[in-house]
Specification:
globular; T-fold; ten-stranded mixed beta sheet; binds magnesium ion; single chain; three-stranded antiparallel beta sheet
Amino acid sequence: MVHPRGFKDHHFGMNTDISFSITGEHSAEASDALRHELVRLECMLSRYLDGSDIQNINRHAGIKPVCVNPETCMILSASLSFSKLSKGLFDVTIGPLVDLWNFKQATRAPDKIRINKELSLVNYRSMMIKQGVSMVGLPQSNQSIDLGGIAKGYAGDCCRKILENQKIASGYISIGGNVITLGNKSDGSCWKVGIRHPRESNSLLGAVSVTDTSVVTSGDYERYFDDAEGNRWHHILHPKTGYPAKSGLISVTVVYENSMTADALATTIFVAGKERGLKLLSHFQGAGAVLVDDVQRVSVTNNIASVFQAAEGIDISIL
Ligand code: ADP
Ligand code: MG
């Protein structure tokens, strides 16, 4: 869609809603380039698309390592670093469990015996990555990689590069709630990125004012189902138990320059809980977080407290 000073777009991709708004002389070209880039990344990283690197790795699990794009290799290496840092709370070999839970269609939790069976396949340590030659393999058949916790973040960083190459000085991209901002708004003010209230639909708990950074949220309200007993089963899994993580947090927003790191961190902190999560966050200089616990208390790290505006009626504590 043509916008007076630029381009706005809203479409479905990477299994989620994507929207962006950019202004600048080359915004038409940049808009096309963004759409192409998002399709390219999805074709490379989605495990559901025929011919993608991830599907290729998964189909050859237990058979042989396969050659992948160096970018795929880099994302998997970065994933592995998050696994090591979090002692396995972030684990992209979570694929068999994600399939078993089948959050899109399920109405009740899977049987514990089946959970334990799939759990035995989840092990980041078993992933074989040879970066020099871009080969990746999984040793056991039925193992599978799922980049749901990190790929959208990586896509955000790629989109930023595209916009920078096209000399776009102002804009934002939202990939399923992963927001990447570029420069300031055209009126010179900072971008204000809203953070959804995890329990009140269509309502915000606040917003962060940012420039050239990304704001990524992981919450238990994004993909979930309620069973007949009223239990909520959401899509962020604890790789040690095989069940949705119950860490005391229901929403984690990470504010950080690098969107891939912010994405992986948000998922990891969600699983780790507040105390351990904050320790993980402290490894990334300048990273800030907004946490919501299971009694809906909101806390904000000190380094972003001055740029966080709470919505009316929301009290915050500063960490
Ligand atoms: P969203 O995809 O809604 O932005 P996240 O970034 O937190 O949310 O990613 C959740 C997705 O990551 C899940 O749908 C699943 O594909 C994958 N996943 C679930 N649990 C884990 C985990 N412990 N480590 C890595 N990836 C995970
Ligand atoms: Mg994530």
